[in-house]
User: Which sequence fits this backbone?
């Protein structure tokens, strides 16, 4: 085995060189810069930051370039780099009611308090290829409304004034950190939400879609979807107060689900919740739907046996890095294992043929 590994070093070096050549592509075509990826492929950058658990657009753009556009590989690179970074503190909880919103809509209240802001979205575009982009033509600039600077209260808060929506319990307990501690089941809601926001967007979307098709009691309304920037504050013991250290762009979604009540809860609306780095609407909505499906036990509902209600199934299979590692390891050398399987199959065939001959003789 050592001879095989040593003999393969040259082949591996050549594979790396070929990969670099393929990554660059035609040298007659201008090379993509990290800044171009960061500014023009922003949604891909946002996904890499969210699932990589590292909010740094420049590093996410670099990872996308290095991975040749393979977002899961880019997420892997970001997570690996993240483990090398020191942790010197934790910011105070973000108050999303103070978010400076670029986009804020509600599917339940037409005249939402504070108004609706459509913002930058594909929702109202025609799904037609724009060949002007292929011709390197610049799209005319559209007027851009400045973000809301005043506080934008959550729409669900108005329902809560009538007691029509379940109140969320407040706790000063520090939630577990999934980036530093392994997942343990049963998981509380804070840990589940961490897992979902790091989970693969396609997997979470599939689970959310299954709940809408009847594989869970989950007929949801988007109470509010908002995108904007929130201030980050860090409490410094030396000063005795918190200071602003920057801003972060977030997408937040709250869904509302009708709830007929249980032995402990009256009829009301319950919530699903999603919060993701950057503009990641599909992920935030999917996350909220799956979050609500996973709450069946704490709400006293019956287990319908739906995949999205199975905490172990959802949480253990949503991590695309863990899934990729387990999946792709089977393409690596398994010569010894396969030889053992081969010998076993040969022996079983010999025994089966020998038994068949004996029965024919009898």
Assistant:
């Amino acid at each position: 085995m050592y001879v095989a590994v040593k003999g393969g070093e040259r082949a591996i070096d050549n594979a790396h060189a070929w990969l670099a050549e393929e990554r660059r592509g035609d040298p007659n075509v201008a090379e993509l810069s990290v800044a171009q990826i960061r500014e023009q492929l922003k949604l891909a950058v946002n996904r890499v930051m969210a699932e990589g658990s590292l909010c740094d657009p420049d590093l996410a753009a670099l990872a996308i370039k290095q991975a040749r556009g393979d977002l899961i590989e880019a997420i892997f690179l970001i997570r690996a780099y993240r483990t090398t970074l020191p942790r010197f503190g934790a910011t105070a909880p973000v108050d999303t009611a103070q978010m400076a919103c670029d986009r804020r809509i509600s599917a339940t209240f037409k005249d939402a308090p504070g108004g609706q802001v459509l913002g930058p979205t594909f929702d109202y575009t025609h799904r037609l290829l724009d060949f002007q982009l292929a011709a390197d033509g610049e799209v005319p600039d559209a007027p851009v409304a400045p973000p809301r600077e005043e506080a934008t209260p959550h729409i669900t808060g108005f329902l809560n004034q009538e007691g029509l929506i379940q109140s969320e319990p407040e706790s000063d307990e520090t939630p577990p950190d999934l980036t530093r501690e392994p997942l343990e089941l049963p998981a509380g809601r804070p840990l589940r939400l961490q897992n979902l926001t790091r989970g693969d967007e396609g997997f979470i979307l599939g689970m959310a879609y299954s709940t809408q098709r009847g594989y869970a009691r989950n007929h949801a309304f988007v109470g509010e979807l908002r995108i904007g920037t929130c201030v980050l504050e860090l409490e410094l013991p030396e000063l005795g107060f918190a200071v602003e250290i920057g801003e972060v762009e977030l997408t937040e979604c709250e869904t509302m689900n009708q709830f007929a009540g249980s032995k402990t809860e009256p009829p009301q609306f319950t919530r699903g919740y999603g919060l993701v780095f950057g503009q990641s609407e599909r992920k935030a909505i999917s996350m909220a739907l799956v979050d609500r499906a996973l709450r069946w036990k704490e709400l006293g509902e019956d287990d319908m046996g739906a995949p999205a209600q199975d905490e172990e199934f959802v949480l253990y299979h949503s991590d695309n890095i863990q899934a990729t590692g387990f999946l792709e390891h089977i393409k690596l050398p398994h010569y010894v294992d396969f030889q053992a399987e081969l010998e076993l199959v040969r022996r079983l065939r010999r025994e089966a043929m020998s038994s068949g001959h004996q029965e024919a003789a009898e």
